[in-house]
# Entry
Amino acid sequence: MPSSPIQPAALEVSDVSKRFGNLQALRGVSATFFPGEVHAVLGENGAGKSTLMGVLGGFVNPDSGTVTLAGDPLPLGNPQSIRKRGVEMIHQHFMLVPAFSALENLRLSQLSIGSADSGLRERAQVTLAKFGWEIPLDIPVEQMSVGVQQRLEILKALLTDAQVMIFDEPTAVLDPKEVEALLELLRNLKAQGKIVILIAHKLQEVLAVGDRFTVLRKGEVVASAERADVDAEKLANWMVGDLPANQAKGDANFGEVALDIQNLFVKGDRGEERVSGVTFQVRAGEILGIGGVDGNGQTELIEAILGLRSVESGAVKQSEEMRVAYVPQDRHRDGLILDFSVIDNLVLGAVSGDEVGSGPFLSSKKTKAWTKSLIERFGIKAENPGVPVKALSGGNQQKAIIARNLYRRPDLLVVANPTRGLDVRATVAVHKEILTAAAEGTAVLLVSTDLDELFALSHKVMFLNQGLLREGEGASAVVGGASA
# Structure
C-alpha cells in the first residue's frame, strides 16, 4: 500500500462531472488510483461507474474536471490517444470480430493505435506462456469458448504494455474456475506495478482481490476505503444507502394466481445456467417486484415467462386464455418501430379489429379516433399522430408502449425497468398507470434495478442474484451479501 496520498505515477481523477440531458451521471467525482494496487469501483446500476470508466477510457468527454496520469493530463474524449498513453480498457462485452482469428484481432487492436508489429505472433506466444494460457491464434474467435475470448481481450491489452488496466465486469460470463484464474491475473498485474481498476458487483470476488474500494451512488463518491476497513456488509450498505419504505398497500385482497413459477431453471445464450430453481407466484391485483443488479438472470427469467426462451426444467404456469402484456426495458430495440408513426406503433397492439376496422382491414376513420383516444387517455404528447414515434421524447415513447399494452386491461403485465431514462414527470405518469392496472385486477411482475421504484410500487419485493431468488429489504438482499 502507498504511504502517501498521491504518488507521481498515479492516475488521478479530479472533480469530474458529466450530464446526459436531465441525468447528472457524475457529480464532482474525485479518486486516485495507485500503481501496484487493485482498486475496485462499486455501485448499483446507474451509480455512474460506466460513465466514469468511459471518461478514463476516452469514450466519454466530461463536462468538467481533469484526469492525469503521472502528473500529465490525459486527452479526454479521445480513446485512441488515451490508449497510446498507456490506458487500456477490457470491456464487459467483448470488442472482438467473431469471423477473425485471434491473431487477426490482435493485429487489428495494434493497428488502431498506430502499431504494425511484424513480431506480434511471437510476442503473443511469449505472453501466453508467461500466464500459462492457451489461445489458438489461427482459428476464428466465434469458435472459442467465452473464457478463451475473455483471455484474448486481456491479451490485447497486455501486448500494449499499458500502465493502467481497467476491467469492466470481467467475471460476468466466466465459470468459477475461470474466475479464479482471472483474479490471479489481477494479482500478477498488481505485482508488476500496474494500476488495476476493477468494476464489479460481486462482493466476494472484489474482496478477494481488492486493495482499495471506491463506492459511487447516484453519480457521487460516497465512500473510499482500504481493504482492512471494509467487509461485505459495509460495502453493500454504501452501495444502496437507506432503502425506501414500501409504499404499496400490502393488505390488498388479491385474486387468483395469474402466474405460477415453480423450480425454474433457464440457461443463457452460451449454455450457462442463468436462472437457478426460482419459485414464485403473482396473483391478480398484486405487484411483485424483483430487483437486483443487471445481469443476474432477469432477462432470461422474463424471456422464459414470455415463451421467448426455452425452459431447462421447472414450470411456467399460466392460463392459455390469459392476455399477457409486456413492457420491455429497451424501448427502442424491443418496444417500438422508430421509423413508424405513432398511429402505426399503437395499432400494433390492437387486440381485435373492432377498434380499428373490420376483419383484416383497417378503417382510417376508426384508427384515427382510436389512436386519439389513447393519446388523450395516456397523456402522450405528439405534434400529430402521424409523426414518426422517434420524434417523441423518451417519456412519451414509453407512454406509447404503456398505452398499447394497457388500453385494454391485461391479465398479466410484465414490465422491465419501465422508467429507465425518464424524467420525474414521466416516471410519475408511468407509475400511475402500473398502479391503476393492478388496482383493476391485473397481476404485475415488475423487474427493476431502481430500488425506489421497486419499493414504491410493489406489494412484495424479492431480489435475483446470480440466478437465485431471495426475499428481504436489507442491503445484503439487494447485492447478495458476501456473494453478490
Q: What stands out?
A: Residues 176-191 form the longest helix (16 residues). The chain has 17 helices and 21 strands. The two ends are 26 Å apart (CA to CA).
